[in-house]
Design brief:
The protein is of the alpha+beta class. 33% of the residues lie in helices and 26% in strands.
Length: 181
């Protein structure tokens, strides 16, 4: 009996010591690098809209009637709603009384364009989520794009797209070209 209690006591102190030894420091070089990258190169400066929205008219309809810098002739709604390579498209809005509105464009693709590597990894469905931010003053920009993969076991994987690739994806949508991941 005393042997069992001794083993438990040693295990508990060993686990406590282990977590103390591995606690992360508050200033790692990775965190500093990421923060510097975000401060130096915010993506939304490259993909702002060129039309000003009247404050108080935030929402999906206002966003769709706006233009991204990719095209001054085709509205966001025209480009994204007519994107022929997406089999389903959906717009979602999250509004806030004190902050910006977030509007997500989610589309799903046929599995045929997915690479053979993805098929070997068990991906059965692939989609894209584009997060627009609409501020109270009418400033609109793309904050983030994520690729969504759903595997045959039902697991969902989300990968954030790097800023240099975002402009390529948006341009492909505007030009109605297939997006390759």
């Amino acid at each position: 009996m005393f042997a069992v209690i001794g083993i438990i006591a040693v295990s508990v102190t060993g686990c406590a010591k282990s977590t103390e030894d591995k606690s992360p420091s508050s200033s790692t070089s990775v965190e500093k690098r990421d923060i510097e990258k975000l401060i130096k190169k915010p993506f939304h400066g490259e993909m702002k809209t060129d039309a000003s929205v009247v404050p108080g008219t935030l929402g999906i309809a206002a966003l769709k009637n706006n233009h991204l810098e990719v095209s001054t002739t085709k509205t966001i709604g025209e480009a994204f709603d007519s994107y022929k390579h997406a089999i389903t498209k959906e717009w979602r809005e999250t509004s806030s009384e004190i902050g910006p509105h977030y509007i997500d464009y989610i589309c799903w693709f046929h599995i045929s364009p997915v690479s053979t590597v993805a098929i070997r990894e068990g991906i059965v469905k692939r989609g894209l989520e584009i997060k627009f931010v609409v501020r109270g003053d009418g400033e609109t920009y793309i904050a983030m794009i994520s690729r969504i993969d759903i595997k045959s076991d039902g697991m969902r994987s989300v990968s954030v797209i790097d800023p240099p690739e975002i402009k390529k994806i948006v341009t492909a949508i505007y030009e109605n070209r297939e997006i390759t991941f």
